[in-house]
Amino acid sequence: MKRIIAHSVLFMLLMTVILGVVYPVVITLVAQSVFSWKANGSVLVVKDQIAGSALLGQEFSSPVFFWGRLSNRVTHPSGIAVSGASNFGPLHPGLVESGIRRIKDLRTFDPVNPAPIPVDLVTASASGWDPHISAEAAFWQASRVAVHRKLDRSDVEALIRAHIETDRFGVTADYVNVVRLNLDLERMAPSRIR
Amino acid sequence: MNALQIVVIPFFFIIFTLLSMALGRFMCAVFRRDAGMNARFSGSWERRLLGMIGIRADFEMTWKQYALNLILFNAIGMLVVYTMQRFQSILPMNPFRLPAVRADIALNTAISFVTNTNWQAYAGESTMSRLVQMSGLTVQNFLSAGTGMAVAVALTRGLIRQERTTIGNYWVDLVRSVLFILLPMSICLSMLLVSQGVVQTFASGIEISGIDPQAGNGDPSNGKQVIPLGPVASQVAIKQLGSNGGGYFNSNSAHPFENPTGLSNIIEIMAILLIPGAFCFTFGHLLGAPRQGWILFGSMAILFLPLFFLSAAEERMGNPALARLGVEQSAGNLEGKEVRFGALTSALWASATTATSNGSVNSSHDSCQPLSGMVLLLFMQLGEVVFGGVGSGLYGMLMFAIMAVFIAGLMVGRTPEYLGKKLESFEMKMAALSILIPPSCVLIGTAAACLVPDIRFSLTNPGPHGFSEILYAFSSAANNNGSAFGGLDASRPFLTVTLAVCMILGRYWVILPVLAIAGSLARKKRIPSSSGTLRTDTPLFMLLLVGSILLIGALTFVPALAVGPVIEHLQLTACNRAMP
User: Fold this and answer.
1) Residue B214 — pLDDT band, cuts 50, 70, 90?
2) In this complex, do A119 and B334 lie within 8 Å of one another by their Cβ atoms?
3) Is A75's Cβ below 8 Å from some Cβ in B?
């Protein structure tokens, strides 16, 4: 019994060194030298400021920007953002309530848009960080963005088209990265709200 | 479905089968001493490594010694992880100065990671320091997976050996599993993941200013957001490969820093299924009867595919409640799903992660359609044998094989035998124990939780879905899966403690009977097969096996499922019909 405990403790120590120190450190060193930008969070820098990460969605609520998915991430007072989903089942009343709120916001800024709203604009993502919306959801917002930025709708649509990413396995519909799209939109026609 | 989707899913399963066959052969070479260069290489390494800490690699253990070593080592693992969490505030590598983890949550987490469950009653970002994640939890991801693989190999030895009292050496099996299978695969997978954008750094976090200055004004942090970074890829790789599933971040592999692209998503799904699938072939090769492995793999596939298709079909449908608001829902049920994965691969992931005992998620299972959620519950409740955990899937399946042989034996009135070993009352008692203990934990635990007066304050969803949240938690814990209907707030002490008990019972009260059977079978002589022997390498036996699993699972869980997801489904369709 005593011998087995001694073996267990020593084995645990040995494994902690190999798997808990050497393994992550080696992976980090290689990752940092080979994929430095990606290993550090795919950060997008605009005018020496970190505007965000190419992989993480942000909250957009002004009509001059494209809006992303609804989000349930929670930001602590310290600034740490904890990812998460609504966890609403299909019959949860909150699902419809947040959907109605979103539809109202979308329609307020764009009352004449006749097209039905794509589902990804009225539902929340799993992580609260989803950076993408479907291409349809972007095109749906083109008229609003064009009007509020005093741009031609065709220019905005051309910008969206330039941002379309196609899933190489064909399992999802085409989508666009909202963060990158909005950054390029700002570059094309700066909004003066800053 | 478009044309590409119809091709892509079968293609995925063909690749999965081919990779499993190849890996199965490799793992057989690792576990068998006599196979060429590989064994000489790994043999001398394991002897030297174990020799360093005074363990003799050539020492053979009886099943009781094997079990004692395993239990004590696991207990020490729990102690280490618990202690690290309780003292994380004074240990290094805690950039956000997180306080010590609450005692019951630390206990729950320690048990959860050592039993290969990886149930998480905490949010990673705001609870665990870098050190705990990297040197506590990640280490257990390897060791708990290795323990499952060791037990599966020990049981296989019991079936192969004749008139022997020993079933191998726990430390040798563990070292081979961890250092020669899991570690090399994790290294490759981590690098693949980093190439897609999974973060891997020791920097503490990035503070972002945001693009829309009007957004985030209501936040308590005044729009300032810190995104935690860390050594994520190295942890994600092993949590996918080792049936662990405990994510670095709260939203697990839905978080773009754990699973950034469509490609990383497919790779991570493959990683979930690969080792459990390969173990069937390893089993066949170790026995010298590859067909036996194919029969097990085939049975798992027969159970997996139809249930997965049901789940996928459900997820591709929209929600009638949203349809009434005039929302365009051709993309399917996207609540709690990421756009880059879509409904189809989210359903594939959900099925794979519950059929194996992995438990990592790339979508919110709680927001699945009712029947789709039922599929996920059922995969866990069948005992985690549809591919199952690494190692644990194989030994769980072999328990069902023993049960199937027994049922067939009853029908024709012969003493049952499996692979030439006579199955007597001791083996039957042990197999029955290992099959019945997890479902008992699920049902008793769920019933007890429902009796807690204010349990509803821990639930997010009202009605039958709230019941499903509780049922899911106990199904997940007792079968060592670890995924959750995340709407359940599992951090109240009643749940952290009862779920921890379920995890322990569901792990060790399956492992102990399995090792006992291994010991008892190793002592027996193999009897030559005769015309009256039930052959276990035929499609007929495959159907018998599938039938036994479904029968036991259905008889046990139909009432509980009827009260939860089935009622919810009826409510949803009624809601659909009520539409103008």
Assistant:
1) confident
2) yes
3) yes
